[in-house]
């Protein structure tokens, strides 16, 4: 899963990005509205954290431009606690949720989990496919109730497949959602990660659809 953080406060930006990476996201960052708009308009994200008070281009304008261009990724806006009008304007501009400053990082993570979950049509934090279960809140994976240890990239790949269970996902789509902007992307590594996941999960839930990509499906 891949996220974008657009926040001009460098310390807060780093804190959010670090927390998201620890939670299993690939993260890109921007420190002004113009850069944030460009990234959100040109890269596919599973979620965006967007501050309203940005230099060069304010957050509401960024959000409105994304929505007019048909960008549908979930967006969580950051607002000032005493500006209720910003919250209303943000929702009207197309935001999916908001958090008022100052806030706890855990709240941002929880709200993002909910947004990503709803975007994928899932009702709970536990994603299940056959014997495989992934708890997005705890960041844990089990197979038939037994814990399985995954690397960060393996977890990110499985999480993306679990959120899109039953749909064929191409290698290029996986690459776009598995790595951040600066990562040296290589499509061959996807096959390596898929192979490792299959061994660790000891299950045939990951199907190869020849010429198209991969699909997560219940073996039953």
TrEMBL record:
One of its GO terms (cellular component) is protein-DNA complex. Residues 124-218 form the OmpR/PhoB-type domain. Keywords: DNA-binding, Phosphoprotein, Transcription, Transcription regulation, Two-component regulatory system. Residues 124-218 bind DNA. InterPro entries: CheY-like_superfamily, OmpR/PhoB-type_DNA-bd, Sig_transdc_resp-reg_C-effctor, Sig_transdc_resp-reg_receiver, WalR-like, WH-like_DNA-bd_sf. It comes from the Bacteria. Gene3D superfamilies: 3.40.50.2300, 6.10.250.690, Winged helix-like DNA-binding domain superfamily/Winged helix DNA-binding domain (1.10.10.10). One of its GO terms (biological process) is regulation of DNA-templated transcription. Residues 2-116 form the Response regulatory domain. The modification 4-aspartylphosphate is found at residue 51. GO terms for molecular function: phosphorelay response regulator activity; transcription cis-regulatory region binding. This is Response regulator transcription factor.
